[in-house]
Amino acid sequence: MCGIVGYSGDKPAKDILIFGLRSIEYRGYDSAGVAFSNGDHIDVVRQIGKVNSLVETLGDAYSDCTCGIGHTRWATHGRPSVRNAHPHVSCNGEIALVHNGIIENFVELKEELVAEGHHFKSDTDSEVVAHLIEKFYKGDLLEAVHEACGYLIGSYALAVMCKDEPGTIVCTKKNSPLVIGMRDDGTYLASDVVAVVDYTRDVVILEDNEYVKIEGAKTAFYDDYLKTIEPEVTYIDWDVSTAEKEGYPDFMLKEIYEQPRVIRDTLAGRLVGGRLNLDELGLTPEELNLIDNVYIIACGTSYHAGLVAKNLIEAWARIPVTVEEASEFRYRNPIIKPTTLVVAVSQSGETADTLAAIRDARIKGARVFGITNVVGSPIARESDGVIYTKANKEIAVASTKSFTGQLVSLTLLAMLLAQANGRMTTKELRVLFNELAHTAELVLRVISKPEAVNEAAKAFVNAHSALFVGRGMGAAISKEGALKLKEISYLHAESYPAGEMKHGPIALIDEGFPVIAIATKSPTYDKLVSNLQECRARGACVIAIATEGDEDIKRHADHVIYVPDCKEAFSAIVATVPLQLLAREVAILRGCDVDHPRNLAKSVTVE
Question: What DSSP letter does each residue of 310-346 carry, written as one string?
């Protein structure tokens, strides 16, 4: 999982590349590097660590260069080091490239190239591509890149320069994102539109096996046979300020505070005359009524949103739902019929396993819906229909507002299915929709009162592990709470349904062991309290997320974090927010970088 940027035009390239690299640093920050087309040669500068380390190394050099490529790396092959950082160059130094993806057959290719006399400087799979292009270069960089790609197995987004073609960048992609931004003073390229949207809103989202040759503001697009094609230009319409902290100490807190707005925007225009307006899904009520089983496939936080949706779809529409990690779904033989609906949930819309899973599902005949935050992303383009979460750009690696957007979108889907098969009346739908819309105000109330969260966080400073428990909807979001805590505070955490405590997890509990319970109002509340009593009897420090007005819970918990009362179906939206705030506060107390946790990248674009 890496990020690439590039520019060729009339303006100095260095500042554009650095801005772009900082914009996509969330995609990888083990190392960073740039290469400049500098007269009759190519200059490469690389550094381990974050982009700021690269900036210090560059100093005032290369300020006059107007063509360059850059890269941020999250290591997949080879440890983080200067020699493994991108850009990579060929033996003769005439070819330089940046690569995002994984070359699955690089070992075989490397052995062949070594036998032919090529010398490698890194342990990466990416360097193989530079040597292949050098091998095939006969005076035309575009043709050499095209021929080299014919030998590659795996995924890649490539931006390549050659010393003999100054000012030129050749790009291509397969199963890895790449966008081309165009304006009169030059052409921009990046893995993510956030790196170019400050310069231009007009972009081409490159399709697999397409090529582009960039020479300043002149761009030419080609298909896999190198025949010229006319690309589709997409106008990017989102708020650039989402890429700025705007006075917040970190992006994570800013994005937590944006959640009420995400709820409102995701719901805007969705209820029209007593029916849900989700026409972009492309199915009539009659076709929706034929759906008799649902798979929700996702990874990480998105998977937890799917667990919540399972409860809602089965309760309201009475359709069986299977929630499965995308990385597992595609390697077995799931039972899929023409009446199967597959819902792919991904914040970035480019998660490699989820993308591969929906391709398999479509081959087997399923209808595929995507739920994503990124317009024009691969999952959006390859789904039969898509619901956008309207969260705008999310920068912090730990997902917060996108998760809330996913919960709201999946709730709408559950309502749609229930209305289509006649199990939810128009009146019931209106009532539920209005209560769902009201959660925006409830979330605002939660984030406005962080004192109880901050006090509870102190219980984790010296802890070595933590346990999250809940029942029903609470069991689903307890998994999200555990994930948030471990990914940004590096504190080991597990999640279990509270009823499973006596089947093993209770053995972990000793004096002061933190147990976080989702104890909001529900039919299983009394049973959950019984589980908490068992934990406290063994010395646990219990932190309860409870409904306002519940005074009894204070007898069973050391810390209580109250959330407003709401319908149980929507409790996940409200009760997740204190878990996000808690994870962030614990991470800060433990001295961790909440926006850039170690070993993690925002978009998982490789399997």
Answer: HHHHHHHT---EEEEEHHHHTTS-----TTEEEEEEE
User: How much of the chain is helix, strand and coil, in % rounded to 5?
Assistant: 40, 25, 35
- pLDDT of amino acid 605: 47
532-563 per-position pLDDT tens digit: 888 888 888 999 999 999 999 999 999 999 99
Q: Give me the DSSP letters along 362-397.
A: HHTT-EEEEEESSTT-HHHHHSSEEEE-------SS
> What does each C-alpha distance from 285 to 117, 277, 365, 420 come to in angstroms?
64, 11, 19, 5
Q: What is the pLDDT of residue 347?
A: 87
CB of 516 closer than 8 Å to CB of 579: yes
The phi, psi pair for 377, rounded to 5°, reads -70, 165
Is 2 considered catalytic here? yes
For β-strands 233-235 and 228-229, DSSP reports them as unpaired
555 Cα distance to chain centroid: 40
Point out the catalytic residue in the list 163, 401, 479, 602: 602
Measured in degrees and rounded to the nearest 5, phi and psi for residue 65 equal: -70, 140
Catalytic residue from among 2, 67, 535, 566: 2
Distance CA 559, CA 234 (A): 50
Is 602 one of the catalytic residues?
A: yes
Strands 179-183 and 559-563: unpaired
Which candidate, 169, 172, 147, places its Cα nearest to that of 160? 169
Other beta carbons within 10 Å of 208: 13
Q: In whole angstroms, what is the distance from residue 337 CA to residue 527 CA?
A: 39
- Per DSSP, the residues of 171-222 read EEEESS--EEEEETTEEEEESSGGGTTTT-SEEEEPPTT-EEEEETTEEEEE
Q: Is the pLDDT of residue 606 over 60?
A: no
Provide the token pair at 494. Answer: 């597990």
Helices of type H across 448-558: 451-457, 473-489, 525-536
**Nearest Cα to 521, choosing from 556, 561, 557, 549?**
549
Tell whether the torsion through CA atoms of 315, 572, 263 and 561 is positive or negative: positive
**Residue 505 in 3-state DSSP?**
helix
Q: How far is CA 407 from CA 198, 305, 441, 443, 476, in A?
A: 30, 6, 16, 13, 12
The dihedrals phi and psi of 393, each to the nearest 5 degrees, come to: -65, 135
Average the pLDDT over each of 65-79, 315-329, 527-541 and give the range with the smallest value.
65-79
**Bridge partner residues of 604 (DSSP):** none
Tokens (6 digits) for 377: 């992303």
Residue 468 bridge partners (DSSP):
495, 516
Tell me how far apart the alpha carbons of residues 294 and 308 are, in angstroms, rounded to a whole number.
Answer: 14
The answer to whether the predicted template modeling score (pTM) of the entire model surpasses 0.85 is no
List residues bridging with 3 in a β-sheet.
72
